[in-house]
Specification:
Blueprint: H1 2-17, E1 28-32, H2 40-48, H3 50-57, E2 64-68, H4 75-81, E3 86-90, H5 91-101, E4 108-116, E5 120-123, E6 140-142, H6 149-162, E7 174-176, H7 179-188, E8 195-198, H8 202-207, E9 213-217, H9 218-222, E10 226-233, H10 234-239, H11 241-260, H12 262-273, H13 280-288, H14 301-310
């Protein structure tokens, strides 16, 4: 407890440095976040009360946060319906929602990124060593067709290998399957899928099986990229600009804690997610992996946006990543 309290105090030092009296803004904020490693910065923020403490240090008064797990509706629908003020959204679905809402009163924008990690494509078919080896009978599991990171990565990989006009060559083999179900099926060898494009910890569990091997990951295709974005709407931001600054600061503090103390972050994850399936030492090593960086600065946004626009998935091509983010994020070293 003392170590965690000291960590929290150190992280708040920067926020206190720019504290100044401002009028109190929103009294309650509704934030959607999943209980998984992608959302680890949000779990740290919740556990350490970083938003509330940063807002108080900035002179915003008492701010209460209502954290909840996503319901059946998607993040964009939750924002539009007022079910959430901020949501954790996968990068691809975020770009689609920001594109479709651009120029409308309820425009969706990003406040910062949550995590930077690769999707990993694995198979249990020993004959498949590269994407050129997939045949018409192959089935590749992805969490959702067209508007998920793995689905777009398959298209991007096909475009690089066979030309843009053949971007859907691999997506014809894709089937929508929840990651947990796909991993279980691939490990057991039962069912119709022989490949799975997913992220940690599913890929780690699969690769622990000697019958399964890695083909490639999304960093091979698009370079380092963020996997999820903390998104909100312009109306919420316009009503709460100082609070948005506090939330972004808390997000950066959470990233700093994870980077400096992956062991403490692992303990927080276990406490919040109630997940005892991964040994704490292994979880700490996983969180500390450089490929699984937790940074508020969005990475690879324009590479995704450019490609999605070229294949007709986005109507508008943003001139820069900042076009899809709030003004508070403009000084982040994003791409």
């Amino acid at each position: 407890m003392r170590r965690r309290a000291l960590l929290g105090a150190a992280l708040l030092a920067g926020a206190i440095g720019f504290a100044r009296p401002v009028p109190a803004q929103a009294a309650a904020v509704k934030i959607w976040r999943a209980l998984d490693l992608t959302a680890l910065p949000l779990l740290v923020m919740e556990h350490e009360h970083l938003i509330e403490r940063t807002a108080e240090a900035m002179g915003l008064g008492g701010v209460s946060i209502a954290w909840s797990i996503p319901a059946k509706s998607g993040p964009a629908e939750a924002l539009a319906a007022g079910g959430a003020d901020l949501v954790a959204a996968e990068l691809v679905s975020f770009l689609a929602a920001a594109d479709s809402s651009a120029g409308t009163p309820a425009e969706i924008r990003g406040l910062g990124a949550l995590s930077q990690r690769p999707y990993v494509l694995v198979t249990r078919n020993p004959a498949i060593r590269t994407i050129r080896d997939f045949g018409t009978a192959s089935r590749i599991a992805v969490p959702a067709l067209k508007l998920s990171g793995p689905a777009v990565m398959l298209e991007m990989a096909a475009a690089q290998e066979w030309g843009l006009e053949h971007f859907d060559r691999l997506s014809r083999l894709a089937v929508a399957r929840p990651d947990a179900a796909a991993a279980a099926a691939l490990i057991s060898g039962k069912g119709d899928i022989d490949a799975h494009f997913s992220q940690t910890p599913y890929a780690d569990d699969e690769l622990a099986n000697p019958a399964i091997h890695r083909i490639m990951d999304s960093f091979d295709i698009a370079g380092p990229h963020s996997i999820a974005i903390l998104a909100t709407t312009m109306p919420f931001r316009n009503a709460n600009p100082e609070l948005c600054k506090a939330i972004l600061s808390a997000l950066q503090q959470a990233g700093d804690l994870i980077q400096k103390s992956p062991g403490a972050a692992a303990e927080i994850y276990v406490a919040m997610a109630k997940d005892q399936t991964i040994p704490l030492e292994d979880l700490s090593d996983m969180i500390g992996d450089p490929d699984l960086a937790y940074r508020a600065a969005p990475a690879g946004v324009m590479r995704f946006a450019d490609f999605m626009h070229r294949i007709g998935r986005l109507k508008h091509r943003p001139a820069a990543w900042r076009d899809r983010f709030l003004p508070e994020a403009r000084d982040l070293p994003g791409s």
